[in-house]
């Protein structure tokens, strides 16, 4: 870990590196102090953001993870085309809905801030860490 900035992870990714990124996120979050269900929940939330960036966004796609006092943050970015409003503000899902659970799940597993538009999307996922 970079002691000055707290950076744990910073790289570009694509479809071929999703599994590697998930392992790196798991290791980085564990090294930052997450354990048990908190670790599993956070890794799943980040994985959903990474998967969505590959599925719906354009290259370049990036991920950065860092630790601040009391919080672990991960930012996933892509270069467009942006997330439609109907996907951002989905409140309910039925068991018959196919897809559309990624953002919904991220919000249940971490603190999420999303900025999106035609130039790209930035998803910031945060979780408490001691």
Kindly state the percentage of residues in helix: 25-40%
* The first-level CATH class name: Alpha Beta
- Shape designation: globular
How much β-strand is present in the residues? 25-35%
Number of strands: 5
Give me the side-by-side strand order of the main sheet: 1-2-3-5-4
The protein's oligomeric status is single chain
User: What is the number of helices?
Assistant: 4
What is Rg? Answer: 14 Å
The termini sit apart by 16 Å
- Overall pLDDT level: 89
Structure description:
By secondary structure, the chain is an alpha+beta fold. It has one domain (7-128): Heat Shock Protein 90 (2-Layer Sandwich), CATH 3.30.565.10. It has helices at 18-31, 36-56, 85-88, 102-109; strands at 7-13, 61-68, 71-78, 111-117, 120-128. It contains four helices and five strands, in the order βααββααββ. The chain is 36% helix and 30% strand. Strands 1-2-3-5-4 form a five-stranded antiparallel sheet, with helices on one face. Helix 1 runs antiparallel to helix 2 (36-56) and helix 2 packs antiparallel against helix 4 (102-109). Keywords: ATP-binding, Kinase, Nucleotide-binding, Serine/threonine-protein kinase, Transferase. One of its GO terms (molecular function) is ATP binding. This is ATP-binding protein.
